[in-house]
Amino acid sequence: MRSTRLPRRARVSLSHNESNASTTPSLPSLPFAPDATSFAELGLEPRLLRAVAALGHEHPTPIQVRAIPVALRGGDVLGIAQTGTGKTAAFALPILQRLGATRTQARAGAPRCLVLSPTRELATQIRRAFDAYGNHLGLRTAVVYGGVGIQPQIAALRAGVDVLVATPGRLVDLMAQREVSFGALSVLVLDEADRMLDEGFLPAIRRVAAALPRERQTLFFSATMPADIQAIADRMLVRPTRVEVAKVGTTVDRVEQSVYFVEQEHKRALLCRVLDRPHVTRAVVFTRTKHGADRVVKQLASASVEAAAIHGNKSQNARERALARFRDGSLRVLVATDLAARGIDVTGVSHVINYELPMDPEGYVHRVGRTARAGADGEAISFCSGEERARLASIERLIRMRIAVAESPRDLVTEGPARAQPRLHVPREVARPQGPAHPRRARSWS
Ligand code: AMP
Question: How far apart are CA 396 and CA 250, in angstroms?
């Protein structure tokens, strides 16, 4: 199992919600050592420490250092963090400890903890994390999401559940069928709140929230905190501790990023050559559309490179099969659209390849976050055609750095104006403030 170093520059800021003090008064003091560096120092009990050690986590990540002590004493947390920061353990570990301390028989359809997640993949991963960290506690977990039969989920709920992980739509269905109720609920987690909003889950979340006991602990996580998300947080949280890591608009420090200027018609050949490099051991290739993802898989197949696509038109089974193979290493290349890739938690992704640049510059940050998870190194390679130059400029403005230009293989360079080096508009004053994480060298093709 991979061991983890703490990120080199852990940009963590913590405040007791000073920014929304008008609606949620701040806590008076910091009750824990902010520089704790072992899980034991955070106050976790031996059974959890054993599970964490078995998973190869040597040190808590910054969000774990900040959030775990607060959550352990029952406080609300407003976490601003992307996936890859260790945020799942930041909420799962303290929840497991609190639930494990008051062992009761798991009740049918009456979870003590509810975790809301925007996608099935993320929900499944969160459930898996609860099972792994709670390995020695004997608590019961279940996951429910749409797009698959409801009966097995009903059976799991009836068998008794302590921790229920759910996507909002399916949960509302189960509530309507009276298969789930919240009389025993003591803790709610909202994960990736900004994604929930993107996916139109707000009405479902409101319905769920209205059915929950007011007396409860709430842990709320979002990668971004625009005003609409802050407004929801203000309504759901009581005197939260605000914990912020790796601010949005910055890419993961350890990812080496480069861009090839290549016209659309040459991208296919370039992709084959990039995937041919020996150090590309596990790659996620991003396309903008589902159709584009299928096309790339076919093109790779004709070049004898096995790949599988995951996107919204694929059945849940096909997506899960592809992810499982990707995770166990039998599939090296996964081709994904942005939506399908949300929450993919696979460690050891060596490369993220942006076959097409995302329309939305924040999408770039989320894509790049698929590699370099929890402190590992990773590489992000983007293919940028003439039509995509404006998108690249927006991305560079957002991440506040220029991406190193890699030299395209000679035979894939289009003659004419498209070959000219791009003039990217990045104001000098927004050049990367802390210095580059990696030397900004251009990779030469050899
Ligand atoms: P998350 O941000 O919750 O999506 O977690 C990303 C990945 O980091 C998961 O694969 C976790 O297993 C892993 N992880 C979480 N906490 C740690 C830690 N303290 N040390 C090493 N890996 C961790």
Answer: 10
- Residue 384 bridge partners (DSSP): 261
Q: Is residue 229 part of a domain?
A: yes
Residue nearest to atom 11 of ligand 1 (CA): 86
Residue 23 CA, ligand 1 centroid: distance in Å? 32
Residue of 1, 88, 95, 245 to mutate, ligand 1, most atoms within 8 A of C-beta: 88
Ligand 1 pocket: which of 2, 38, 57, 125 to mutate (most atoms within 8 A of CB):
57
Per-residue pLDDT, 272: 95
As given in the structure block, the two tokens for residue 178 are 């009276």
CA angle in degrees (0–180, nearest 5) for 230-232-233: 60
E strands, 272-386, in order: 283-286, 307-310, 333-336, 351-354, 378-384
> What pLDDT was estimated at residue 320?
84
For residue 353, give the CATH number of its domain.
3.40.50.300
Determine, yes or no, domain membership for 224. yes
Cβ proximity of 237 and 24 under 8 Å: yes
Per-residue model confidence (pLDDT) at position 425: 34
CA 48 to ligand 1 centroid distance, Å: 15
Spans in the chain with pLDDT lower than 70? 1-36, 246-254, 340-345, 372-377, 400, 414-446
* Residue 381 pLDDT: 95
Q: By three-state DSSP, how is residue 168 classified?
A: helix
Q: Are 121 and 323 in contact (CB under 8 A)?
A: yes
pTM for the model = 0.59
Contact assessment for residue 371 and residue 351, using Cβ atoms and an 8 Å cutoff = yes
For residue 59, give the ligand 1 atom closest to its CA: 19
Going through 192-332 in order, the beta strands assigned E by DSSP cover 217-222, 241-245, 255-261, 283-286, 307-310
Tell me, yes or no, whether 10 lies in a domain. Answer: no
Nearest-angstrom CA–CA distance, 442 and 39: 40
